[in-house]
Structure to design on (466 residues):
C-alpha cells in the first residue's frame, strides 16, 4: 500500500499517520483513514491539545505520547494457543527436535501484545519437559501491554480458541472469572520493550540474537512492503543456524523479499536461514497488502483464517526442507476462506467470489464463508447482494457482530437508513457483552471499543427507532 495515496480530510492527519508509520511500521489504507481520524481526534482530546497542529508538534517532541497513539491505532489481538495447526507443529515437531539437539533453546514471541503467545510457548515447553531449558522472550512496542503481560492474569476471552486439554493445570482462579498463571509459568518468560523497526536488531550479544524459534504472527499484514523486507531480514538474521521463523496465516510470503529457506508444512510456510540443510527454494511472488474493506465508518478487514486441521505427530519432519510448491485445492471452509482472502488481496475478486460460491455448495453452514462473500460483494459495489450474503451469515449465527455491521452498511449504501440503523443497533447491543479491549470476532483484531465507537458514529447520523 502506498501511504501517500491515503485520503485524509486534513493534511495534519497525514503527517500524524506518517509519524506512526515511521515509529511502528503500521501502514494506513484508504479504507481505514476515516476510522484512524476518529481515534486521532480522541487522542487529541485526551492529551488536552488545542487542535491537530499542536498535537502533531507534541508527538514530535514526546516519544511516550507517540507510543500511546501507536497503541491506540494498532491491533493487539491475541489469545492462548491461537491457530491450533501452528501449535501442533511447534509441540509435535519443531520444539522436540530443538530440545533434543541443545542444552538450552531460545524462544521469542515478537510483538507479543499482552503475552498470551509467549506464555503458550512456556506451557508447551513445560508439557514437553523442557521448560527449565527454555529461555523465553516476549517483546512489544506497547509498554502498557507489556505490563499486563508481566501480571499474567487473563479474562475468559483470552481462552476463546481451541485450547489444549488440562490447560487449567497452569492457572489459578481469580475474581471475575479471571485466571492467573502459576508462578512457574509466569516467571519463565521475560518481557522487554523492543521495536521491530530498530535498525540494531539483532546486533551482537543482544537478547534477540541466536533465537531457535521466532513467532512473528499477524504482524506483517500491517506493514508496507519495504518495512516487511527490513523487519523480515532482521528476524532471519536473529535465527540460530537451524532456527525457525513462523509467521501468521494472513501474513504475506517472505521468499520474494528476503534471503531465506521456505519450509512447506501442513500449516503453511515457515522460514529458516538461507540454504539451511543445503536446500534453496525458488522465490515466490508476494501478494499486495491485505485489502481493507470499508464498513461505513469502521474499517473491517477480511477475516483471518483459523487454519487447517492440526497436523498429526508424524506429518512433517522439522529437518526436511522441501521446495515450495503450489498448495492443493482448498477443501475445508477455513482453507477456502484463506484462499479467497488471498485472491481478494491480489485484486482477483471475481476469482475469489467463484471460490466462495463453490465453497458454499459444500459448506453452506459456514457463517464465515457467507460473511466473507458479503465483504467481497461490497468491495465490488454490489451492495444489495452484500446485504443478502450478510443475512445468510446471520441466519447461521445471529451473534456475528461483523455480519450485522456488513448488513447495516449495505442498507446504508442502498439508501435505506432506517433498516441500516436497526442493524447497527443489533451490533451495538452485542458489543456490550464483550470487554472493551477484546477483539471482535472476524474483525481482524479490531477491539470492541474501536468497533463500538465506529458503530455509534454511524448511528448518530441515522434515524431513531419509531
Amino acid at each position: 500500500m502506498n501511504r501517500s495515496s491515503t485520503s485524509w480530510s486534513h493534511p495534519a492527519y497525514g503527517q500524524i499517520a506518517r509519524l506512526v508509520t515511521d515509529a511502528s511500521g503500521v501502514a494506513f489504507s484508504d479504507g481505514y483513514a476515516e476510522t484512524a481520524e476518529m481515534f486521532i481526534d480522541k487522542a487529541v482530546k485526551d492529551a488536552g491539545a488545542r487542535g491537530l497542529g499542536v498535537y502533531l508538534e507534541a508527538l514530535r517532541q514526546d516519544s511516550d505520547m507517540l507510543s500511546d497513539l501507536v497503541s491506540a491505532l494498532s491491533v493487539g489481538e491475541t489469545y492462548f494457543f491461537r491457530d491450533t495447526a501452528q501449535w501442533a507443529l511447534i509441540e509435535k515437531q519443531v520444539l522436540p527436535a530443538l530440545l533434543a539437539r541443545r542444552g538450552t533453546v531460545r524462544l521469542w514471541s515478537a510483538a507479543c501484545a499482552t503475552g498470551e503467545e509467549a506464555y503458550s510457548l512456556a506451557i508447551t515447553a513445560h508439557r514437553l519437559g523442557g521448560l527449565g531449558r527454555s529461555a523465553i522472550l516476549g517483546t512489544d512496542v506497547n509498554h502498557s501491554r507489556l505490563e499486563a503481560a508481566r501480571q499474567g492474569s487473563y479474562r475468559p476471552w483470552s481462552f476463546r480458541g481451541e485450547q489444549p486439554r488440562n490447560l487449567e493445570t497452569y492457572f489459578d482462579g481469580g475474581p471475575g472469572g479471571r485466571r492467573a498463571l502459576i508462578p512457574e509459568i509466569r516467571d519463565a518468560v521475560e518481557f522487554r520493550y523492543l521495536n521491530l523497526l530498530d535498525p540494531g536488531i539483532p546486533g551482537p550479544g543482544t537478547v534477540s540474537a541466536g533465537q531457535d524459534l521466532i513467532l512473528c504472527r499477524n504482524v506483517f499484514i500491517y506493514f508496507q512492503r519495504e518495512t516487511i523486507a527490513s523487519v523480515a531480514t532482521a528476524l532471519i538474521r536473529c535465527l540460530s543456524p537451524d532456527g525457525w521463523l513462523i509467521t501468521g496465516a494472513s501474513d504475506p510470503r517472505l521468499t520474494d523479499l528476503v534471503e531465506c529457506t521456505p519450509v512447506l508444512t501442513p500449516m503453511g510456510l515457515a522460514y529458516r536461514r538461507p540454504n539451511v540443510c543445503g536446500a534453496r527454494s525458488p522465490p515466490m511472488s508476494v501478494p499486495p497488502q491485505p485489502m481493507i474493506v470499508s464498513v461505513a465508518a469502521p474499517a473491517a478487514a477480511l477475516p483471518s483464517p483459523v487454519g487447517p486441521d492440526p497436523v498429526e505427530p508424524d506429518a512433517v519432519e522439522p529437518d526436511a526442507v522441501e521446495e515450495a510448491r503450489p498448495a492443493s485445492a482448498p477443501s475445508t471452509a477455513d482453507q477456502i476462506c484463506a484462499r479467497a482472502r488471498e485472491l481478494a488481496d491480489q485484486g482477483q475478486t471475481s476469482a475469489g467470489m467463484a471460490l466462495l460460491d463453490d465453497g458454499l455448495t459444500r459448506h453452506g453452514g459456514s457463517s464465515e464463508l457467507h460473511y466473507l462473500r458479503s465483504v467481497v460483494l461490497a468491495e465490488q459495489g454490489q451492495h444489495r447482494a452484500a446485504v443478502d450474503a450478510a443475512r445468510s451469515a446471520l441466519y447461521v449465527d445471529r451473534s456475528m457482530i461483523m455480519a450485522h455491521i456488513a448488513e447495516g452498511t449495505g442498507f446504508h449504501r442502498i439508501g435505506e437508513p432506517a433498516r441500516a440503523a436497526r442493524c447497527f443497533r443489533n451490533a451495538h447491543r452485542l458489543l456490550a457483552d464483550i470487554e472493551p479491549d477484546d477483539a471482535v470476532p472476524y474483525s481482524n483484531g479490531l477491539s470492541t471499543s474501536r468497533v463500538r465507537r465506529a458503530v455509534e458514529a454511524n448511528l448518530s447520523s441515522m434515524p431513531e427507532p419509531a
